[in-house]
Amino acid sequence: MSKLLSANFARLFKSIWFWACGLCMLGYSLWKAANMLSWACGMWAGYSGDFITSRAGDFTVPMMIVLPVFSAMFLGAEYHNNTIRNKIIAGYSRWQVYLANLIAVAAAGLIYAGAHVLALTASGFFIPLHVWDMGALTLRLIYCLPFILAVSAISTLLSMLIRLRALPVLVILLSAALLWLPQNLFERLSSGPEMVVTDGVEMVVTVDDKGEGEHTYWKDGREITWDDLERVPNPQYVGEPLRTVYLFLMEALPGGQAFYLSESMGMERASFPGMAACSLTLAALFTVLGLRLFRRKDLN
Amino acid sequence: MWKLTCANTVAMLRSKRLWTGAGLLLAYDLASYALSGLLRAGDRGLDSRIFEFMGIAALLVPVVTALFVNTDYHDGTIRSKLSVGHSRPAVYLANLTVCTFTGLFYFVLHLLAALPLGCIGGGALRMGAGELAIRLATSAGVLLSLTAVTVAVSMLMAHRAVTVVVIFMMALLLDGAALLENQLAQPPEVRDVVGTVEVVDEKGELDLRYVDREGRELKVSETAMAPNPLYISEPLRTGLCVFNDLLPGGQIFHLMGLTEREVPMWTVGLSALVTAMLSTALGLMLFRRKDLR
After folding, report:
1. Chain B partners of A184 at a C-beta cutoff of 8 Å?
2. Which tens digits make up the pLDDT trace of A152-163?
3. Are residues B118 and B206 both part of a single domain?
4. Which of A78, A279, B123, B160 is deepest in the core (most CB within 10 A)?
5. Helix or strand or coil: residue A217?
């Protein structure tokens, strides 16, 4: 199997798809790094803290699209060129071929993630008051590893079992659906259990020159506080047990994890260890499923 | 070329991708109705339902087109057609014709699905018959423009990665058009104030008021207008407007009414036809010289 891996890695570094997808990821990482610098040196110039850890997982959202597309094109070429058949004829077993391909795809994901972290870290040196917390950063990256494995496992399964010309389109649609679903669920879960009655209430929002807003409420000419406002049950509120199901789906599926790891969504009940466990389970399940189905696949 | 077009039409009708695309389009229409039409029945006009097709067509038509043409390359059909005596322009134009008809087929399918669903949801047509006819004709022009650009790319790129290239090309065209329109929507002057106050009165209406550094409310007559640094001035403005109007992304946004700029529909249709002609001419010229080994 070491020869298979050598061949895969040699092909990986010569593959135009690896570099094209890497360029897309790098472009995204540099944009994020530029945003971070603009925040840190502009509005938050006087703030001393860790700017990098919260952004370390930002690569997860584009990776949900880029890695499956890369896998579809990179592994699809093996079918197109009959390389898979040649490997099996040469004496390698199907599970070796499958695992070698999975490792290659996972390696590509790790390289993209590494490039993202390097871009952020290099930018960190330009922030005067940045506080380096390598422990927190390392822990965050460790939690990202299972995510990369899960996405690699799903991508490899699809690429090794589906021989359609339209496979890249299918994976893009699937990735878009996996990213859309948690956003939709999050929007539904955002409704609180009660809603404020605003009839007869005047709301004044004052925005100062620093961009900070202050809300005040007036009723019948008298200022009242937020807590004193009348409340009624919110029909849009998602109660139990559906709430738990939605939250589990957001934590278990790669799409939701991508938004949690990039801190694009608040984590109501999710936790990084829980997400890591779900990702490792998904990676194992999809790998076992992929191995079993690939064993029976007709390679003619 | 008639025989070529007939052969292409039969191949398209027998292909799974046409009917898979049709299924996805119908599923999208149902989902769109379920998510918005049912919840706020009558809130959406039928017009928006008709032209929201352009949003999904921006992905569906290029993908089906790219897959159709690439299959021709993969199966050696293009070389076979040339071997039996058809000219390169005839092969190119036959592909363009069938792909254009495919786009129109999807549009008709969408109308047949979206209109009844919209009527069930209580929606009604808000624009006059004349304006609707012009918009429908413009939609056909924009579909032609979209198909022409995709056929040009697909006929020149024989690699199976053409679908990925086409998807990213469309994403860039749409995002680029949105970015450009946002920049072009910047006003030439903005009010020179330090802070703003949003007041929601008892009727729920929003009123914007202005304050100085001490929080004292200013009357509108006490505020002054200042040049907007983000405003794009001439001659760059005209150039960017023409550029965005010629790209399929900008044409789609105009058709869906998502732009601040008021552009007459006949101008959009004309730009679409110009784009279709230019991309077809360029595609034909390059395809003539392409090595088809």
Report:
1. none
2. 999 999 999 998
3. no
4. A279
5. strand
